[in-house]
DNA sequence: AAAACGTGGTC
DNA sequence: TGACCAAGTTT
């Protein structure tokens, strides 16, 4: 049997998968049917996020909201709070919106085909294919970063991403079997995650080594080629640490769309490319107060820019009624604060008292 | 269709 | 220290 035969390749991969058997929290056990709710929840969390980070969030969500109907019944703030720290918060907004559609319009049943799944909020090409294959046993071509890398190497595709995507998908489709599509989808992704890794691929123990053109040509480590990314600019902001007499500090909610949309924040100036001057703060302050600069700065890096935040502290008079909520220091954990805001809070607690 | 959108770990 | 990267989607 020639090693380039698609059936032989998919079979050898499935054999490897059965033998290696990574145990992941969302994976069905002992031949049990995969629960579409579990598959959907895990796949949305796994978008651009590592297994290690997702696992505890997945278990926490499932414990708190055992069904899609339960999740649909949660408040927006509860969901955002539970998602805090995972990043890409549009996913949480779309997750909740999707849960409502499925629970209210479909009686809690997820659609079982790619085309219908694709219409739901937060479900794109990858997630639709993954749910169709893993939860419903449908043959679907699952394309994520792992599969792109594995295909680029296996077939020695040197054309850089993202232009190579259609070709890579066609190659992946040529290998996707009719049998055990869900296991096969997870097997290719596992191969990319554990052996065919971005750096130092473990070709020596790869079930596809004999067939791998990239390996034969000695270019596996250079693949997939990628276009250079744009530079990240640096933006600047000033955070207002407003403390009331009883110690409570001021938080407010960010606008529902855009960066950190719907999450809570320490009141801030906008984040712009030019640093802020002291005489500009009066026009940006959440309440009128004398502001005292705190030493040091908080650095944070987002996907597309670096951020440098300075802090100013002020005391709020008791009759101040700003747009926001006052939160006791020991209750800050009760709110939907993204990681960058927790960084700011840690800094303020260290410097302002 | 290019750009926006988080975070933490790794080398 | 910093660039790269992770089971992508939306506009």
UniProtKB/TrEMBL annotation:
Pfam families found in the cross-reference section: EndIII_4Fe-2S, HHH, HhH-GPD, NUDIX_4
Gene name of the encoded protein: mutY
Reactions catalysed: Hydrolyzes free adenine bases from 7,8-dihydro-8-oxoguanine:adenine mismatched double-stranded DNA, leaving an apurinic site
Organism domain of life: Bacteria
Keyword field: 4Fe-4S, DNA damage, DNA repair, Glycosidase, Hydrolase, Iron, Iron-sulfur, Metal-binding
Gene3D superfamilies: Helix-hairpin-Helix base-excision DNA repair enzymes (C-terminal), Hypothetical protein, domain 2, Nucleoside Triphosphate Pyrophosphohydrolase
InterPro entries with a match to the protein in the record: A/G_AdeGlyc_MutY, DNA_glycosylase, Endonuclease-III-like_CS2, Endonuclease3_FeS-loop_motif, Endouclease-III_FeS-bd_BS, HhH-GPD_domain, HhH_base_excis_C, HhH_motif
Family note: Belongs to the Nth/MutY family.
Stated name of the protein: Adenine DNA glycosylase
Cofactor binding note from Swiss-Prot or TrEMBL: Binds 1 [4Fe-4S] cluster.
Record-linked SMART domains: ENDO3c
Cofactor(s) the record lists: [4Fe-4S] cluster
Domain HhH-GPD, chain residue ranges per copy: 45-194
Family matches, as PANTHER family: ADENINE DNA GLYCOSYLASE
């Amino acid at each position: 049997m020639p090693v380039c035969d698609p059936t032989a390749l998919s079979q050898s991969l499935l054999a490897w998968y059965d033998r290696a058997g990574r145990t992941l929290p969302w994976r069905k056990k002992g031949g049990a049917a995969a629960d579409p709710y579990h598959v959907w929840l895990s796949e949305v969390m796994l978008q651009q996020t590592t297994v290690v980070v997702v696992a505890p969030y997945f278990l926490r969500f499932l414990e708190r909201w055992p069904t899609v109907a339960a999740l649909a019944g949660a408040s927006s703030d509860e969901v955002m709070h539970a998602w805090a720290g995972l990043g890409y918060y549009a996913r949480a907004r779309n997750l909740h919106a999707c849960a409502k559609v499925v629970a209210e319009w479909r009686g809690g049943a997820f659609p079982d085909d790619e085309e219908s799944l694709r219409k739901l909020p937060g479900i794109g090409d990858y997630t639709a294919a993954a749910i169709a294959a893993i939860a419903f046993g449908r043959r679907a071509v699952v394309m994520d970063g792992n599969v792109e890398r594995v295909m680029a190497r296996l077939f020695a595709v040197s054309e850089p991403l993202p232009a190579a995507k259609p070709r890579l998908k066609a190659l992946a489709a040529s290998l996707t079997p009719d049998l055990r599509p869900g296991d096969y989808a997870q097997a290719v992704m596992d191969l990319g995650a554990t052996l065919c890794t971005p750096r130092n691929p473990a070709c020596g123990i790869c079930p596809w080594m004999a067939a791998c053109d990239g390996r034969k040509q000695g270019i596996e480590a250079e693949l997939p080629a990628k276009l250079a990314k744009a530079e990240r600019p640096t933006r600047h902001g000033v955070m207002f640490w407003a403390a009331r007499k009883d110690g409570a500090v001021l938080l407010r909610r960010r606008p529902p769309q855009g960066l950190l949309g719907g999450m809570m924040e320490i009141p801030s100036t906008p984040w712009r490319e030019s640093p802020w001057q002291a005489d500009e703060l009066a026009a940006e302050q959440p309440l009128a107060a004398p502001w005292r600069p705190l030493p040091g700065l908080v650095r944070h890096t987002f996907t597309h820019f670096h951020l440098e935040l300075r802090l100013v502290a002020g005391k709020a008079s008791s009759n101040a009624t700003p747009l926001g909520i006052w939160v006791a220091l020991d209750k800050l954990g009760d709110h939907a604060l993204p990681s960058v805001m927790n960084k700011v809070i840690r800094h303020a607690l260290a410097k302002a008292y």
